[in-house]
Amino acid sequence: MDTGLVPPASRAGAVLVDIGCGGGIFAPHIAAKRYSHVGVDLTSSALALAKEHGVVAVGGNALSLPFASGSVDVVVAGEILEHVTDLALCVSEACRVLRPGGTFVLDTIAATRLARVVAVTVGERVPAGAPPGLHDPRLFVDRDQLRNECARHGVPVKLTGLRPSLLSVLAWALHRRPQARMVPTWSTAVLFQGHGVKEGP
User: Fold this and answer.
1) What are the C-alpha distances in Å from 6 to residues 33, 79, 151, 188?
2) Tens digit of pLDDT for each residue in 159-171?
3) Domain contains 182
4) Residue 182 forms beta bridges with which residues?
5) Is the pTM of this model over 0.85?
6) Can you give the CATH number for the domain in which 94 is found?
7) Contacts (Cβ under 8 Å, ≥6 apart) of 39
8) How many domains does the chain fold into?
9) C-alpha to C-alpha distance for 139 and 104, rounded to whole angstroms
10) Residue 154's closest CA among 83, 86, 69?
11) Burial of 131 (0-12, 13-18, 19+ CB in 10 A)
């Protein structure tokens, strides 16, 4: 995810909610933006790691976020939408908790045949790649549905394709980087990110 899509905090006490925060690995990349970084995850072991990264860890479900409506400045959904069982409800919750003028940033996997081949057929067979069975292609995200659901809740989003940098893939393959660096691309057919701002009342 392009951290440049997350604006610097515009007020004291601004809150960023990280849905499916995992071990909190996003935290160091946005620490300079001065948010109170709140991570939501179902897994207690992940939340314990997130705390070590300075995240305020909250046990919770992406389909029922434990925050008041209009209380959050930024919602980040990194690599989580392709795992939720109800995309419409997850998007509704993300948009609900955002205040007017708040930012929604996401990245995920497209519901396309090409994405199934890249992420599952190939990606889950590459040594040191994604664990087999990590992805359920039935949950990959329909881009039109995502845009429509966000717009329905007052957050029009723009989608941009993502791909791994070829040089960083080489460095990863040679064990010189822990993961490949993602860069923008024209196609949203495999991986993509989205960015939108919630409209006023």
Assistant:
1) 8, 16, 19, 20
2) 999 998 877 656 5
3) yes
4) 164
5) yes
6) 3.40.50.150
7) 17, 18, 21, 22, 24, 27, 47, 50, 55, 56, 57, 58
8) 1
9) 20
10) 69
11) exposed
